Amino acid sequence: MAKKKQVKFTEGKILNNLVRLAWPIILANILQTAYQLIDTFWLGRIGADAVAAVSISFPILFLILSLGAGLTLAGTVIVSQYKGAEDQLQVNYSSSQTVFVIFFISVLLAVVGYFSAAPLMKLIGAGPEILEDSVSYFQVSSWGFIFLFMFYVFQSLMRGIGNVLLPMYVVLATVFLNLVLDPLFIFGYGPIPGYGVAGAAVASIVTQGLSALVGLIILFRGKMGISISFSQMKFDSPWTRRMFNIGIPSSMEMSTRAAGMTVLIMLVTSFGSEVVAAYGIGSRILSLIVVPALGFAMATTTLVGQNIGAGKIKRAELIGNLSAKIAFFGLTAVGLVLFAFAEPVTAFFVPDDPEVIRDGSIFIKIMAPSFGLLGVQQVLNGVFNGAGFTKASLLISVFALWMIRFPTAFVLSNNTGLGFEGIWWAFPISNLLAAIVAFIYYKMGYWKLRTIRNRHRK
Protein backbone atom coordinates (compact mmCIF):
# COMPACT_ATOMS: atom_id res chain seq x y z
CA MET A 1 0.00 0.00 0.00
CA ALA A 2 2.85 2.38 0.72
CA LYS A 3 4.01 2.10 -2.88
CA LYS A 4 0.63 3.17 -4.22
CA LYS A 5 0.92 6.39 -2.28
CA GLN A 6 4.30 7.24 -3.76
CA VAL A 7 3.99 9.96 -6.39
CA LYS A 8 6.86 11.27 -8.52
CA PHE A 9 6.78 15.01 -8.07
CA THR A 10 9.63 15.51 -10.53
CA GLU A 11 7.31 14.83 -13.48
CA GLY A 12 3.71 15.37 -14.55
CA LYS A 13 1.58 18.53 -14.36
CA ILE A 14 2.95 21.06 -11.91
CA LEU A 15 -0.49 22.35 -10.89
CA ASN A 16 -1.70 18.85 -10.05
CA ASN A 17 1.42 18.13 -7.99
CA LEU A 18 1.20 21.48 -6.23
CA VAL A 19 -2.46 21.03 -5.30
CA ARG A 20 -1.89 17.39 -4.28
CA LEU A 21 0.80 18.51 -1.84
CA ALA A 22 -0.67 21.82 -0.74
CA TRP A 23 -4.22 21.02 0.32
CA PRO A 24 -3.36 18.44 3.02
CA ILE A 25 -0.64 20.77 4.35
CA ILE A 26 -3.07 23.69 4.40
CA LEU A 27 -5.73 21.62 6.16
CA ALA A 28 -3.19 20.28 8.68
CA ASN A 29 -2.00 23.84 9.39
CA ILE A 30 -5.58 25.06 9.80
CA LEU A 31 -6.20 22.24 12.23
CA GLN A 32 -3.02 23.07 14.16
CA THR A 33 -4.07 26.72 14.30
CA ALA A 34 -7.40 25.45 15.62
CA TYR A 35 -5.58 24.58 18.86
CA GLN A 36 -5.14 28.31 19.55
CA LEU A 37 -8.59 29.21 18.26
CA ILE A 38 -10.24 26.61 20.49
CA ASP A 39 -8.23 27.94 23.44
CA THR A 40 -9.30 31.51 22.62
CA PHE A 41 -12.96 30.47 22.29
CA TRP A 42 -13.13 28.82 25.73
CA LEU A 43 -10.89 31.35 27.48
CA GLY A 44 -13.10 34.12 26.09
CA ARG A 45 -15.87 32.66 28.26
CA ILE A 46 -13.74 33.47 31.32
CA GLY A 47 -13.15 37.04 30.16
CA ALA A 48 -10.87 39.42 28.25
CA ASP A 49 -8.08 39.07 30.86
CA ALA A 50 -7.85 35.32 30.22
CA VAL A 51 -7.54 35.92 26.47
CA ALA A 52 -4.94 38.62 27.11
CA ALA A 53 -2.90 36.30 29.38
CA VAL A 54 -2.54 33.75 26.58
CA SER A 55 -2.10 36.38 23.87
CA ILE A 56 0.80 38.04 25.67
CA SER A 57 2.65 34.75 26.19
CA PHE A 58 2.11 33.46 22.64
CA PRO A 59 4.88 35.51 20.92
CA ILE A 60 7.50 34.29 23.43
CA LEU A 61 6.30 30.70 23.02
CA PHE A 62 6.61 31.10 19.27
CA LEU A 63 10.10 32.58 19.68
CA ILE A 64 11.35 29.54 21.61
CA LEU A 65 9.55 27.09 19.32
CA SER A 66 11.10 28.71 16.26
CA LEU A 67 14.64 28.02 17.48
CA GLY A 68 14.08 24.30 16.95
CA ALA A 69 11.31 24.36 14.35
CA GLY A 70 13.64 25.90 11.75
CA LEU A 71 15.86 22.84 11.99
CA THR A 72 12.91 20.59 11.11
CA LEU A 73 12.68 22.54 7.84
CA ALA A 74 16.29 21.55 7.20
CA GLY A 75 15.12 17.94 7.48
CA THR A 76 12.45 18.63 4.85
CA VAL A 77 14.96 20.21 2.45
CA ILE A 78 17.63 17.50 2.82
CA VAL A 79 15.15 14.61 2.63
CA SER A 80 13.29 16.11 -0.36
CA GLN A 81 16.52 16.50 -2.32
CA TYR A 82 17.58 12.91 -1.59
CA LYS A 83 14.07 11.76 -2.49
CA GLY A 84 14.34 13.57 -5.84
CA ALA A 85 17.71 11.89 -6.40
CA GLU A 86 16.08 8.52 -5.49
CA ASP A 87 18.61 7.81 -2.70
CA GLN A 88 16.52 5.93 -0.11
CA LEU A 89 19.49 5.11 2.15
CA GLN A 90 20.23 8.80 2.63
CA VAL A 91 16.52 9.56 3.09
CA ASN A 92 16.45 7.12 6.03
CA TYR A 93 19.80 8.23 7.49
CA SER A 94 18.93 11.94 7.26
CA SER A 95 15.57 11.30 8.91
CA SER A 96 17.18 9.41 11.81
CA GLN A 97 19.70 12.20 12.31
CA THR A 98 16.95 14.85 12.27
CA VAL A 99 14.98 13.05 14.99
CA PHE A 100 18.15 12.61 17.07
CA VAL A 101 19.25 16.26 16.93
CA ILE A 102 15.80 17.81 17.40
CA PHE A 103 15.02 15.66 20.44
CA PHE A 104 17.95 17.03 22.43
CA ILE A 105 17.19 20.58 21.35
CA SER A 106 13.56 20.23 22.44
CA VAL A 107 14.53 19.01 25.92
CA LEU A 108 16.90 21.95 26.36
CA LEU A 109 14.27 24.48 25.25
CA ALA A 110 11.63 22.94 27.52
CA VAL A 111 13.85 23.40 30.60
CA VAL A 112 14.83 26.95 29.62
CA GLY A 113 11.20 27.89 28.89
CA TYR A 114 9.90 26.61 32.23
CA PHE A 115 12.43 28.40 34.44
CA SER A 116 12.39 31.69 32.49
CA ALA A 117 8.57 32.06 32.39
CA ALA A 118 8.12 34.68 35.12
CA PRO A 119 10.94 37.06 34.10
CA LEU A 120 9.92 36.79 30.43
CA MET A 121 6.28 37.68 31.14
CA LYS A 122 7.38 40.65 33.25
CA LEU A 123 9.82 41.73 30.54
CA ILE A 124 7.13 42.02 27.86
CA GLY A 125 4.88 44.01 30.16
CA ALA A 126 2.27 41.59 31.55
CA GLY A 127 0.12 43.64 33.93
CA PRO A 128 -0.70 42.46 37.48
CA GLU A 129 -4.18 41.38 36.40
CA ILE A 130 -2.80 38.80 33.91
CA LEU A 131 0.74 38.07 35.16
CA GLU A 132 -0.04 34.94 37.21
CA ASP A 133 -2.17 33.36 34.48
CA SER A 134 0.33 34.15 31.73
CA VAL A 135 3.21 32.61 33.74
CA SER A 136 1.30 29.40 34.54
CA TYR A 137 0.18 29.01 30.92
CA PHE A 138 3.75 29.51 29.70
CA GLN A 139 5.26 27.07 32.20
CA VAL A 140 2.86 24.27 31.36
CA SER A 141 3.22 24.92 27.62
CA SER A 142 7.03 24.70 27.90
CA TRP A 143 6.93 20.98 28.72
CA GLY A 144 4.95 20.46 25.55
CA PHE A 145 7.93 21.57 23.44
CA ILE A 146 9.34 18.03 23.50
CA PHE A 147 6.15 16.50 22.12
CA LEU A 148 5.49 19.34 19.71
CA PHE A 149 8.98 19.18 18.21
CA MET A 150 8.81 15.42 17.77
CA PHE A 151 5.56 15.78 15.84
CA TYR A 152 7.03 18.66 13.81
CA VAL A 153 9.91 16.34 12.84
CA PHE A 154 7.51 13.61 11.75
CA GLN A 155 5.47 16.14 9.77
CA SER A 156 8.53 17.70 8.12
CA LEU A 157 10.08 14.37 7.11
CA MET A 158 6.81 13.12 5.63
CA ARG A 159 6.50 16.37 3.67
CA GLY A 160 10.03 15.91 2.39
CA ILE A 161 9.06 12.67 0.63
CA GLY A 162 5.67 14.06 -0.45
CA ASN A 163 3.52 12.07 2.02
CA VAL A 164 1.34 14.88 3.33
CA LEU A 165 -1.92 13.03 4.01
CA LEU A 166 -0.72 10.99 6.97
CA PRO A 167 0.29 13.98 9.18
CA MET A 168 -3.04 15.61 8.33
CA TYR A 169 -4.98 12.60 9.64
CA VAL A 170 -2.99 12.62 12.88
CA VAL A 171 -3.59 16.35 13.41
CA LEU A 172 -7.30 15.94 12.65
CA ALA A 173 -7.69 13.30 15.37
CA THR A 174 -5.81 15.33 18.00
CA VAL A 175 -7.76 18.54 17.30
CA PHE A 176 -11.04 16.73 17.92
CA LEU A 177 -9.56 15.41 21.17
CA ASN A 178 -8.43 18.93 22.13
CA LEU A 179 -11.96 20.20 21.49
CA VAL A 180 -13.15 17.91 24.30
CA LEU A 181 -10.19 18.29 26.66
CA ASP A 182 -10.03 22.12 26.56
CA PRO A 183 -13.28 22.86 28.47
CA LEU A 184 -12.62 19.82 30.68
CA PHE A 185 -9.27 21.12 31.97
CA ILE A 186 -10.17 24.83 31.88
CA PHE A 187 -13.45 24.57 33.83
CA GLY A 188 -13.18 21.09 35.37
CA TYR A 189 -15.81 18.37 35.62
CA GLY A 190 -16.55 15.91 38.40
CA PRO A 191 -13.27 14.74 39.99
CA ILE A 192 -11.18 16.68 37.44
CA PRO A 193 -10.38 20.17 38.80
CA GLY A 194 -10.53 23.28 36.62
CA TYR A 195 -7.10 24.78 35.97
CA GLY A 196 -8.35 28.00 34.39
CA VAL A 197 -5.97 29.50 31.83
CA ALA A 198 -3.33 26.81 32.47
CA GLY A 199 -5.95 24.15 31.63
CA ALA A 200 -5.74 25.12 27.95
CA ALA A 201 -2.02 24.31 28.00
CA VAL A 202 -2.62 21.00 29.81
CA ALA A 203 -5.12 19.94 27.13
CA SER A 204 -2.64 20.82 24.37
CA ILE A 205 0.18 18.82 26.00
CA VAL A 206 -1.97 15.68 26.20
CA THR A 207 -2.92 15.87 22.51
CA GLN A 208 0.60 16.85 21.40
CA GLY A 209 2.05 13.91 23.33
CA LEU A 210 -0.27 11.48 21.56
CA SER A 211 0.50 12.92 18.11
CA ALA A 212 4.28 12.73 18.75
CA LEU A 213 3.97 9.10 19.88
CA VAL A 214 1.99 8.13 16.77
CA GLY A 215 4.46 9.92 14.48
CA LEU A 216 7.52 8.23 15.99
CA ILE A 217 5.89 4.80 15.83
CA ILE A 218 5.20 5.32 12.10
CA LEU A 219 8.78 6.42 11.44
CA PHE A 220 10.30 3.49 13.35
CA ARG A 221 8.02 0.94 11.66
CA GLY A 222 9.28 2.19 8.30
CA LYS A 223 6.27 1.32 6.14
CA MET A 224 5.36 4.83 4.93
CA GLY A 225 8.42 5.80 2.86
CA ILE A 226 10.86 6.53 5.71
CA SER A 227 12.50 4.10 8.13
CA ILE A 228 14.44 5.49 11.09
CA SER A 229 16.52 3.43 13.53
CA PHE A 230 18.43 3.94 16.79
CA SER A 231 21.59 2.56 15.14
CA GLN A 232 21.73 5.67 12.90
CA MET A 233 21.12 8.08 15.80
CA LYS A 234 24.73 8.83 16.62
CA PHE A 235 26.41 12.20 16.55
CA ASP A 236 27.56 12.89 13.00
CA SER A 237 29.49 16.16 12.92
CA PRO A 238 29.49 16.78 9.10
CA TRP A 239 25.79 15.94 8.79
CA THR A 240 24.85 18.06 11.82
CA ARG A 241 26.89 20.94 10.39
CA ARG A 242 24.97 20.67 7.11
CA MET A 243 21.68 20.60 8.98
CA PHE A 244 22.62 23.69 10.96
CA ASN A 245 23.82 25.52 7.83
CA ILE A 246 20.37 25.06 6.30
CA GLY A 247 18.32 25.15 9.49
CA ILE A 248 19.87 28.00 11.50
CA PRO A 249 18.91 30.72 8.96
CA SER A 250 15.40 29.25 8.94
CA SER A 251 15.33 29.23 12.75
CA MET A 252 16.59 32.81 12.75
CA GLU A 253 13.90 33.76 10.25
CA MET A 254 11.19 32.27 12.47
CA SER A 255 12.85 33.78 15.54
CA THR A 256 12.99 37.15 13.80
CA ARG A 257 9.27 36.94 13.14
CA ALA A 258 8.61 35.83 16.72
CA ALA A 259 10.84 38.56 18.14
CA GLY A 260 9.01 41.07 15.95
CA MET A 261 5.70 39.82 17.37
CA THR A 262 7.13 40.12 20.89
CA VAL A 263 8.28 43.69 20.38
CA LEU A 264 4.91 44.56 18.87
CA ILE A 265 3.07 43.03 21.83
CA MET A 266 5.24 45.20 24.12
CA LEU A 267 4.03 48.17 22.10
CA VAL A 268 0.43 46.95 22.26
CA THR A 269 0.52 46.43 26.06
CA SER A 270 1.14 50.15 26.53
CA PHE A 271 -2.44 50.73 25.35
CA GLY A 272 -4.07 48.44 27.97
CA SER A 273 -5.57 44.95 28.26
CA GLU A 274 -8.56 45.70 25.98
CA VAL A 275 -6.22 46.48 23.06
CA VAL A 276 -4.06 43.44 23.94
CA ALA A 277 -7.17 41.23 23.73
CA ALA A 278 -8.15 42.81 20.39
CA TYR A 279 -4.64 42.23 19.06
CA GLY A 280 -4.70 38.64 20.31
CA ILE A 281 -7.99 37.85 18.60
CA GLY A 282 -7.06 39.68 15.41
CA SER A 283 -3.64 38.06 15.13
CA ARG A 284 -5.13 34.60 15.67
CA ILE A 285 -7.74 35.17 12.97
CA LEU A 286 -5.02 36.42 10.65
CA SER A 287 -2.82 33.42 11.44
CA LEU A 288 -5.68 31.15 10.40
CA ILE A 289 -6.23 32.96 7.11
CA VAL A 290 -2.52 33.09 6.26
CA VAL A 291 -2.32 29.29 6.60
CA PRO A 292 -2.98 28.78 2.85
CA ALA A 293 0.11 30.89 2.08
CA LEU A 294 2.22 28.82 4.43
CA GLY A 295 0.72 25.62 2.97
CA PHE A 296 1.64 26.61 -0.57
CA ALA A 297 5.08 27.71 0.65
CA MET A 298 5.71 24.30 2.26
CA ALA A 299 4.41 22.46 -0.81
CA THR A 300 6.66 24.65 -2.95
CA THR A 301 9.66 23.82 -0.73
CA THR A 302 9.06 20.08 -1.19
CA LEU A 303 8.48 20.33 -4.95
CA VAL A 304 11.44 22.64 -5.55
CA GLY A 305 13.67 20.46 -3.34
CA GLN A 306 12.77 17.23 -5.12
CA ASN A 307 13.17 18.77 -8.58
CA ILE A 308 16.52 20.28 -7.68
CA GLY A 309 17.58 16.88 -6.35
CA ALA A 310 16.60 15.46 -9.75
CA GLY A 311 18.54 18.23 -11.56
CA LYS A 312 15.39 19.88 -13.02
CA ILE A 313 16.17 23.54 -12.27
CA LYS A 314 13.86 25.03 -14.93
CA ARG A 315 10.92 22.99 -13.64
CA ALA A 316 11.68 24.28 -10.12
CA GLU A 317 11.35 27.85 -11.43
CA LEU A 318 8.02 27.08 -13.11
CA ILE A 319 6.78 25.73 -9.76
CA GLY A 320 7.70 29.03 -8.08
CA ASN A 321 5.93 31.11 -10.76
CA LEU A 322 2.67 29.16 -10.53
CA SER A 323 2.65 28.96 -6.75
CA ALA A 324 3.16 32.73 -6.41
CA LYS A 325 0.21 33.47 -8.73
CA ILE A 326 -2.11 31.13 -6.83
CA ALA A 327 -1.08 32.60 -3.48
CA PHE A 328 -1.58 36.20 -4.62
CA PHE A 329 -4.99 35.89 -6.24
CA GLY A 330 -6.36 33.28 -3.83
CA LEU A 331 -5.39 35.07 -0.63
CA THR A 332 -6.44 38.48 -1.94
CA ALA A 333 -9.93 37.01 -2.43
CA VAL A 334 -9.91 35.48 1.06
CA GLY A 335 -8.79 38.79 2.53
CA LEU A 336 -11.68 40.66 0.92
CA VAL A 337 -14.18 38.17 2.33
CA LEU A 338 -12.64 38.52 5.78
CA PHE A 339 -12.80 42.31 5.45
CA ALA A 340 -16.56 42.07 4.91
CA PHE A 341 -17.16 39.82 7.94
CA ALA A 342 -14.58 41.25 10.36
CA GLU A 343 -17.03 42.28 13.11
CA PRO A 344 -19.08 39.06 13.44
CA VAL A 345 -15.88 36.98 13.32
CA THR A 346 -14.35 39.03 16.16
CA ALA A 347 -17.58 38.94 18.17
CA PHE A 348 -17.56 35.13 17.98
CA PHE A 349 -14.54 35.02 20.31
CA VAL A 350 -15.38 37.78 22.82
CA PRO A 351 -19.15 38.18 22.51
CA ASP A 352 -19.70 40.52 25.48
CA ASP A 353 -17.03 43.17 25.04
CA PRO A 354 -18.00 45.84 22.45
CA GLU A 355 -14.69 47.69 22.75
CA VAL A 356 -12.61 44.58 21.98
CA ILE A 357 -14.95 43.70 19.10
CA ARG A 358 -14.55 47.18 17.61
CA ASP A 359 -10.77 47.31 17.95
CA GLY A 360 -10.24 43.73 16.76
CA SER A 361 -12.43 44.18 13.68
CA ILE A 362 -10.58 47.38 12.72
CA PHE A 363 -7.28 45.46 12.93
CA ILE A 364 -8.65 42.76 10.60
CA LYS A 365 -10.09 45.27 8.11
CA ILE A 366 -6.79 47.14 7.85
CA MET A 367 -4.70 43.99 7.42
CA ALA A 368 -6.92 41.72 5.30
CA PRO A 369 -6.56 43.33 1.84
CA SER A 370 -2.77 42.75 1.93
CA PHE A 371 -3.00 38.96 2.36
CA GLY A 372 -2.18 38.32 -1.29
CA LEU A 373 1.10 40.21 -0.89
CA LEU A 374 1.93 38.20 2.21
CA GLY A 375 1.19 35.06 0.22
CA VAL A 376 3.70 36.02 -2.49
CA GLN A 377 6.42 36.62 0.10
CA GLN A 378 5.80 33.28 1.84
CA VAL A 379 5.71 31.25 -1.39
CA LEU A 380 8.93 32.77 -2.71
CA ASN A 381 10.54 32.02 0.65
CA GLY A 382 9.42 28.44 -0.01
CA VAL A 383 11.34 28.47 -3.30
CA PHE A 384 14.50 29.74 -1.60
CA ASN A 385 14.15 27.15 1.17
CA GLY A 386 13.65 24.28 -1.30
CA ALA A 387 16.89 25.32 -3.01
CA GLY A 388 18.63 25.22 0.40
CA PHE A 389 19.12 29.00 0.26
CA THR A 390 17.43 29.71 3.60
CA LYS A 391 19.50 32.86 4.16
CA ALA A 392 17.38 34.66 1.56
CA SER A 393 14.21 34.02 3.58
CA LEU A 394 15.99 35.26 6.70
CA LEU A 395 17.11 38.52 5.08
CA ILE A 396 13.63 39.24 3.70
CA SER A 397 12.03 38.63 7.11
CA VAL A 398 14.56 40.90 8.85
CA PHE A 399 13.82 43.60 6.30
CA ALA A 400 10.02 43.25 6.63
CA LEU A 401 9.82 43.15 10.41
CA TRP A 402 12.73 45.11 11.81
CA MET A 403 13.35 47.68 9.09
CA ILE A 404 9.71 48.27 8.16
CA ARG A 405 6.99 46.87 10.45
CA PHE A 406 8.18 47.76 13.93
CA PRO A 407 9.57 51.25 13.13
CA THR A 408 6.37 52.05 11.22
CA ALA A 409 4.19 50.76 14.08
CA PHE A 410 6.14 52.77 16.64
CA VAL A 411 6.08 56.01 14.66
CA LEU A 412 2.41 55.80 13.64
CA SER A 413 1.16 54.82 17.11
CA ASN A 414 3.23 57.36 19.05
CA ASN A 415 3.62 60.32 16.70
CA THR A 416 0.32 60.54 14.83
CA GLY A 417 -3.35 60.78 15.72
CA LEU A 418 -3.86 57.10 14.85
CA GLY A 419 -2.90 55.85 18.32
CA PHE A 420 -2.86 52.06 18.60
CA GLU A 421 -4.39 51.79 15.10
CA GLY A 422 -0.99 52.87 13.82
CA ILE A 423 0.24 49.42 14.86
CA TRP A 424 -2.45 47.83 12.67
CA TRP A 425 -1.36 49.93 9.63
CA ALA A 426 2.23 48.71 9.93
CA PHE A 427 1.11 45.23 8.78
CA PRO A 428 -0.07 45.99 5.22
CA ILE A 429 2.78 48.46 4.67
CA SER A 430 5.42 45.85 5.58
CA ASN A 431 3.62 43.15 3.56
CA LEU A 432 3.74 45.31 0.43
CA LEU A 433 7.43 46.18 0.67
CA ALA A 434 8.50 42.62 1.61
CA ALA A 435 6.59 41.15 -1.37
CA ILE A 436 8.29 43.59 -3.74
CA VAL A 437 11.78 42.76 -2.39
CA ALA A 438 11.14 38.98 -2.48
CA PHE A 439 9.84 39.13 -6.05
CA ILE A 440 12.80 41.18 -7.32
CA TYR A 441 15.26 38.83 -5.61
CA TYR A 442 13.46 35.79 -7.04
CA LYS A 443 13.62 37.19 -10.57
CA MET A 444 17.34 37.95 -10.22
CA GLY A 445 17.81 34.15 -10.20
CA TYR A 446 20.72 33.88 -7.76
CA TRP A 447 19.03 30.89 -6.06
CA LYS A 448 19.22 29.01 -9.41
CA LEU A 449 22.88 29.88 -10.05
CA ARG A 450 23.78 28.81 -6.53
CA THR A 451 22.01 25.48 -6.99
CA ILE A 452 23.80 24.80 -10.30
CA ARG A 453 27.18 25.61 -8.71
CA ASN A 454 26.49 23.24 -5.81
CA ARG A 455 25.60 20.43 -8.21
CA HIS A 456 28.84 20.94 -10.16
CA ARG A 457 30.85 20.77 -6.92
CA LYS A 458 29.35 17.35 -6.21
Description:
The protein has helices spanning 2-5, 14-43, 48-84, 88-115, 117-123, 131-143, 145-160, 165-187, 197-221, 237-269, 273-289, 291-309, 313-340, 342-349, 354-367, 371-386, 390-415, 421-444, 446-457. The protein has 458 residues and is mainly alpha-helical. The protein has one domain. Helix 10 packs parallel to helix 17 (390-415), helix 14 (342-349) crosses helix 15 and helix 16 (371-386) crosses helix 18. It is globular and about 55 Å long. 56% of the residues are buried. Mean pLDDT is 85; it is low at 1-5.
Short description:
This protein has 458 residues and is mainly alpha-helical. The protein has helices at residues 2-5, 14-43, 48-84, 88-115, 117-123, 131-143, 145-160, 165-187, 197-221, 237-269, 273-289, 291-309, 313-340, 342-349, 354-367, 371-386, 390-415, 421-444, 446-457. Helices cover 83% and strands 0% of the residues.
Number of strands: 0
Helix content: over 70%
Rg, Cα atoms, Å: 21 Å
From the spread of the alpha carbons, the general shape counts as globular
Briefly note the structural class of the backbone. Answer: mainly alpha
Low-confidence stretches: 1-5
For the largest beta-sheet, the strand count, sense and barrel status come to: none
Order of helices and strands: HHHHHHHHHHHHHHHHHHH
Tally the helices.
19
**What proportion strand?**
under 5%
Mean pLDDT across residues: 85
Distance between the termini: 35 Å
Into how many domains do the coordinates divide? 1
Membrane topology: Multi-pass membrane protein
Transmembrane segments: 21-38, 50-79, 99-117, 137-154, 166-189, 195-220, 258-279, 285-305, 326-350, 362-380, 392-411, 423-442
InterPro entries: MATE_fam, MATE_MdtK, MdtK-like
Pfam families: MatE (PF01554)
